[in-house]
User: What shape does this take?
Amino acid sequence: MLNEIIECVRPARSLVVLTGAGVSAESGIPTFRDALTGLWANFRAEELATPEAFARNPEMVARWYDERRARCATCVPNPGHHALATLERHFVDTGRDFVLLTQNVDRLHQRAGSQRVIELHGTLWVWRCIDCGREREERVVPFASHPPRCECGGLRRPGVVWFGEMLPADALEQAYTALAGCDVFLSLGTSAIVEPAASFVYLARDRGATTIEINLQSTPISGVVDHSLSGKTGELLPQIVEQLVMKI
Ligand code: OAD
Assistant: This one.
């Protein structure tokens, strides 16, 4: 199966990669839905990842996101992140299109060197004032108070997409444009449950793209894609990319 995937990706003219929390798992960042270890196994998403939760208890929500941000600060990109950055460089150097759509908010892809990254769900590293809308990247962890305050006096929230909120319009537009033109679509480390990302595979397939999934467990798209491989992205991606980049 690994060789089949390699030979599908090798001739691609336009590669779109979608990543989820599974790609960051080997960096020590919890996923959401893995039983026992996932964030949603230990916390109620409705109490933390919604505008209503922030309105109800801004201190608790801000503290929880700041703790996740502080944890990200101690984590480093894993071999899966580095493999994707190498793959991007290989595609760019050979005059082909490459776009990395990520649902992750940790910015480990960027820390590994990926540049063509579209953050579908925002990032923990940017916080936004709910009054004046001012956004700023915050690298110092943790905040002195929760929630942090804006110069205007307003409360600042994490720059991530909460349940019930729309995705950033520009990110979504770029994603749909990339999907419209891709000939290979790779879904990596995502449970393929949360929309609209969960439907990207259908958009790619309906345009004739070859669709591939690498995930630890089977997902709702495992029976939809052309190739579904079970395993850890931190182990499999370096093997795939090495064959693609080294062997011409
Ligand atoms: P999930 O936690 O739903 O799914 C992560 C997937 O990665 C699971 O299917 C795991 O089996 C798999 N996995 C775990 N470790 C892996 C590894 N080392 N290699 C490969 N696969 C591995 O996370 P997402 O699919 O990213 O949205 O969740 C999508 C969205 O739901 C998140 O962006 C977040 C969440 O609510 C918002 O918060 C808006």
Summary: The radius of gyration is 18 Å. Strands lie at 14-19, 97-102, 117-119, 122-129, 135-137, 156-160, 184-188, 210-215, 227-230. The longest strand covers residues 122-129.
